[in-house]
Amino acid sequence: MPIEVFFAIEVAINGLMAGVMYALVALGFVLIFKASGIFNFAQGVMALFAALTLVGLQTGQIPFAHLINAIFGTRMHHFGWDLPTIVAIIGTMAVMVLLAFLVERLVLKHLVNQEPIILFMATIGLAYLLEGLGDVMWGAEVKQLDVGLPQGASVWIGDTTYALFGYDFFIDKLALWAAGIAAVLVIGLTLFSQYTRQGRALRAVADDHQAALSVGISLRAIWVLTWSIAGFVALVAGIMWGASSGVQFSLSLIALKALPVLILGGFTSIPGAIVGGLIIGVGEKLFDFFFQPIVGGATENWFAYMLALVFLLFRPQGLFGEKIIERV
Amino acid sequence: MKTTHFAAALAVGMTAAAPALAELHFPSLSYRTGPFAPGGIPFADGYSDYLTLINERDGGIGGVRIRQSECETAYNTERGVECYQGLRGEDPLVLQPLSTGITYQLIPRTMQDQIPMHTMGYGRTSAVNGEVFNWTFNYPANYWDGASVIINYLLEENDGSLDDKKIALLYHNSAFGREPIPTLTRLSEREGFELLTIGVDSPGQQQSSQWLQIRRERPDYVIMWGWGVMNSTAIQEAANIRFPMENFIGVWWSGSEQDVIPVGAGAHGYKALAMHGTGRDYPVYDDLQTYVVDRGLAAGTGGELGTVNYSRGMYAAMLAVEAAKVAQEIHGVGQITPAMMRDGMANLVITEELMESLGLPGFGPAFEVDCTNHGGTGAAMIQQWDANAREWNLITDWILPDRELIMEMVMEDSLAYAAENDITPTCLDRSGG
Amino acid sequence: MIYREAGDYKLTYGADAQTFPIKGDRWAYWLALAFAAAVVPLFLTDYLAFALLVPFLIYVIAALGLNLLLGYCGQLSLGTGGFMAVGAYAAFKLMTAFPGLNIVFVIILAGLVTAAVGVLFGLPSLRIKGFYLAVATLAAQFFLVWLFTRAPWFFNYSPTGMITAPTRTLFGVPITGPSASGVSVYLFCLGFVVVLAWLARNLTRGSLGRSWMAIRDMDIAAEIIGVNPLRAKLSAFAISSFYVGIAGALLFTVALGAAEASEAFGIDKSFLVLFMVIIGGLGSILGAFIGAAFLIIGPVLLKLLLVNNLGWPTDLAAHVEVMIIGTLILVFLIAEPHGLTALWRTLKEKLRLWPFPY
Fold this sequence. Notes:
The complex is a heterotrimer of chains A (about 325), B (about 425) and C (about 350). Chain A is mainly alpha-helical. Chain A has 13 helices and no strands. Chain A is globular and about 60 Å long. In chain B, helix 10 links the parallel strand 8 and strand 9. Chain C has about 350 residues and is an all-alpha fold. Helices cover about 70% and strands about 0% of the residues of chain C. Chain C has one domain (about 45-355): Orthogonal Bundle (ABC transporter involved in vitamin B12 uptake, BtuC), CATH 1.10.3470. Chain C contains 15 helices and four strands. Chains in contact: A-B, A-C, B-C. Chain C: It is found in: Cell membrane. Chain C: This is Branched-chain amino acid ABC transporter permease. Chain C: Keywords: Cell membrane, Membrane, Transmembrane, Transmembrane helix.
C-alpha cells in the first residue's frame, strides 16, 4: 500500500480518538438536556471546576487562600499534605454532588416551567459564577493533573503495526484510555437508566415532567441526581482533557468542541453524542489532512460546524434526535 | 437618565485614584485572569517585586518613591483601551502592555499623548526604528531577532549550512504568532532550508492534526511561537510522537516552567530562546528575599522567584528603573515626567559592569539605545530544560541575530507605516526642563 | 400620580399609533435624548468616553441587531462576532481603498456588506430551527474569523494580520485615529444609535416586524396565514447583520483603532451580545440598552469600586467581578425571568396606579 494511505488511516484513527474526547464533553450536555430540557451552557466550566477541585484536593491547597490572604493579610497556601488520587476523586465527587444540590435548591427550583431560553440563561449565569468561584477558590495559575494515566505513543501498537504493515501507527495511550473510559461510562449510564429504579424515574421525567410528577416521582430529587451525574461526567472530561494540557482556564473552552457534536448527534441521544463525536473527530482530521495544502490548515475550528450544518440540512433534528412533529 | 449615577460612581472612583505629588508612577498592565493568566501572573509579580525592592532598599529612584498601579487587561484589547484611558491622565512613566494586540492599538495613541511604551520581546518589531516610532521601545530583543537567533544557532549546530534541511514553524495563529514568518521566509531563501508554517488556533489545546502533519513531513527542526496552553500541549504532542526534543526550539514566550512541567519527563531536552538568565543564582535575589519577600511585601507567593516569566518581569522593571535614573541625570530633577522618561529610555546604556552592580551579572546583554535603534542588540541565548532537575540550563552564550537583514526589513515596514500615517521620520529633541 | 395616562386623550389615529403613547414616556424620551446629546458632552472625559460610553453605545447597536433577529424573529444566532468582524474588515478595506470616502458612508457601506454576508449564512434558517440553527451561525462565526486571519487580502498583506484604522474626519473633526477626542467619538456613535434605534423601533411596529413576530410565535401558522417565511427570515438576517456590521465597523474604527479578527471578534463576542439581549429582555428596544449597560458598564464600575476604591488586588477583583455578574444574572432571572425590561414594565404598571393600587 502507498504510504499516503497509511497516513490517511493514521489520521482517521487519531480522529476517532479525538472524537471520543469530544463525546465525553457532549455526554454531560445530553444528560441534562434529556432530563430537564436545559441546554447547560455551564458544562465546560463544570469540567474546569471539577478538575481544579481535584488538583486542589490532591495537592492539599487551601480553598479561597487568595481571598483570605487579601482580606486578613495572612500568607497561607497549602495544608501541607498530598491526598491519594482516589480520595481526591471521591472528595471532588462530593463537591460536585453538593454543587448539584445547590443548583437545584437555589436556581432550578425557582425556574420550574419556564421557557428553555430562560433556563439556558440561568446556566449562563451559573457559568460565570462557577468560573469566578473556581479561580477564587483555587487560583488561576496552570496546574499539573496527574492521576496516573499513561501518556505518549503506544510503543506496542507502533511495533506491531510496523511488523504487520511496515508502517508504525501512532496512537496516544491516553486516547486509548479515554476511549475505554467513555465506553464504560456509556455502558454504565445505559444500564443505570434501563435497570434501576432511579434510572427509570429519570427517563420518565425526561419524557413528561407532569406525568412523572403525577405518579409520585420527585422532580427535584431527579434533578439533583441528573446534575450530579453531569458533574461526574464533567469530572471525567476534566481529568482526560486536563491530563493532556494541564488544568487552567482554557479547559472551559472545550465546551465549544462539544457543540457541533451535540448538534450532529441530537440533543437527546447518548449514542448520538458518541457517534456524533466520532464523525466530527474523523471528519475534521481527514479534512485538515487532505485540504491542508490548499487552504492552509487550522480548519478544525470551523469544519466541525460546517459538517454538522450539512448533516442538519438533511436531518434538521440531528442524527439521533427525536423527530420534530409540528402542528398548528 | 442613567448616566448621572455612573458619573457619580465614577467621580468617586477617580478621586480615590488621584495621584499624589512627588511620586514616580509605574503602572503595570497585567493579566492575572483569562486563558493566558498562567504566564501573566509571574511576569506581573516580578515587575512589581523589583519596584518594591527599589522602594524598600534604595528609598525609590534618586530619592523619589515609586508608586505602582496595576490594571487588569485579561489579554483583551478592549480592556487594554479601558486601562490606557484610566492611566494616561496619571503621568505613567512607561507603559508595558504585555500583549502584541494592545501594543498595536497603543502605538498611535501613545505618540499622540507622549507617553513612552516599552515592549520587551513582543509588540511591533519595526518600532526598532526610533525615527518613526519616537515613543515606542523594544530593546533588548524582538521577534525578528529571535527568529534570526534560532536560525543562527541552528547554522552553528549544522556547521554553517542548512541546505536541504526542513524547518517547521508551529505558530499561534494571531498577530504575535505570525510575526516571525517574514523573517524566516527570507532566511529560508538565503540559507536554502525549506520552511513549513503550521498554524494553531487560539487557545491551542487541540494539536493532534498539526503534530501528525509534523510526523509525516519529518522536519529536521520545529520552531514554536506559542503562548499559553498551546505551549504545553505542543510539547506534550511532540513527546507523544517521540519527536527529538533537542530539535524542538521555542521562542522566549514558549520557554517557561509552566510550559514544560505539565509534560513531565517527556519534556526533557526541550530548548527555548532566553532573552535573559533564569534561576535564583543572582545576588539580586538575596535582596529580593530580604527586603520584599521576608517583609511580606511580595506580589505573589514568593515561591516563583527565579522562574522564567518572573525573571522577565523583573528584568523589565530593572530596565525601566535604569532608564528613569538616566532621565533624572539628564534633566537634573527627581520628579521626572513621561517625556523626560522617554529621553532616559532613548539614551539608556546597559553595560556588563552595570548589570553586575545591580546584582544581575550576565543576566541580560549589554546594549545601547539611540534614536535610530530602539531595539538593542537583539542577542539571545538558548536554554534547555532538564526534566530531572526541573530547571532550565543555558547552553549557549549570547547569540547575535543577523541585524543587517532585520534592519532592512525594519526600514521597509516602518517607512511604510510612516507613509501611511503622515509621519516624517525624525529624531525627537529632548523635552524641556 | 406622577406617571399616569388619565387625561391623555388621543384624537387622531396618528396620535394613537405613536411610539410613546403616554405623555410621561414621551417627555422622558426627549429629556434623555437632550441630556445625552447636550449635557453629557459637557463633562465627558476621554476616560468616560472611551472606557464606558463609546463601547456601551456600540454594543447597544449590536444588541439591537441581534434582538431584531432573536427577540422579534425568533432565530438564534451565535455568529455575531463573525458578522462584527465582517463589518470591521469591510470598513478597513473601504477606508484604505478609498481614502476620500466619508467615514459615515464607510460605516454604512460596511453594514451593507455585512447584511449580504448575513443573508448568505441565514439561508439554513429556512430548514433548521432553534438551538440547531445556532450551529449554522457558529459555522459562520468560526469560518469568517478563520478567513480573516488566513486570507492576506483582507488585512492588506500586513505581516502580522493586524488592521489599523487611519485618521478620518467629519466636518473637519477627527473621528478615528489617535487624535479623535472622546466627545466627538461619543457624539458620532450617539448619532448612529439614535438613528438605528428609531429605525428598529419603527421596523418592528410595521408590517415587516409583524411578519417576524408571526414567524417567531409559530412559523407554520404564520406561513398558513400568508407570511412568506423566506422573505421574513432572510430580511431579519439581513437587517440584523446590517446593525451588527455597523457595530463591528464602529468598534474597530473609533473604539479600538487596531484589531485582529481572532482576538477582537472571537466567539466570546457572540456570547457577550447574546447575553446582553437575553438579560436586557428579548423583543424589546429598551432591553438592548439595559443589557449593554449591564454587561459593559457594570464590570467597569465594579472594577473601579473594587480596585480603585477598596484597593483589592486586580486578579481577585476580576474573579469576584465575574462571580458577581453571574450571581446578578441568576438573581434577576429568579426575580423576573423575562429580562430586565420586564422588571421595568412591572415597575411602570405599579407607578401608573400609584398611590391607589386597586
